């Protein structure tokens, strides 16, 4: 498939889909081929692996998520003054 630069600007998503389907897309400037869009050989993104940080994170305060008591809130507010 050959397209002009102007058409390529307007139809880029379609051209990318065509390249993903295996078609070579040639973009021409003033009728002269300038660049080809082709599908990459390998996907650039690696597949995610879950659990890679298991055992590497240390929780210093296991109850960090619990709400503060009234005494803790008062101490916090007093410390800000």
Task: Give a verbal description of the structure.
Helices cover 32% and strands 17% of the residues. It has helices at residues 5-10, 12-20, 70-80, and strands spanning 2-4, 25-29, 32-37. The protein is elongated and about 75 Å long. The model has no long low-confidence stretch (mean pLDDT 88). The chain has a 3-stranded mixed beta sheet with strand order 1-2-3. It has 81 residues and is an alpha+beta fold. The protein has a domain at 2-37. It starts with a strand and ends with a helix. It contains 3 helices and 3 strands. The longest helix is centred in the last third of the chain and has 11 residues, at 70-80. A hairpin with a 2-residue loop joins strand 2 (25-29) and strand 3.
Summarize the SSE layout with pairings:
Blueprint: E1 2-4, H1 5-10, H2 12-20, E2 25-29, E3 32-37, H3 70-80
Parallel strand pairs: 1-2
Antiparallel strand pairs: 2-3
Order of helices and strands: EHHEEH
Beta-strand content:
15-25%
Counting helices, strands and paired strands, the structural category is: alpha+beta
Globular, elongated, flat, extended or rod-shaped: what is the shape? elongated
Distance between the termini: 70 Å
- Order the strands across the largest sheet as they lie in space: 1-2-3
| Low-confidence runs | none
The total count of strands amounts to: 3
Amount of helix = 25-40%
Q: Please describe the biggest sheet, giving its number of strands, its sense, and whether it closes into a barrel.
A: 3 strands, mixed
State Rg: 28 Å
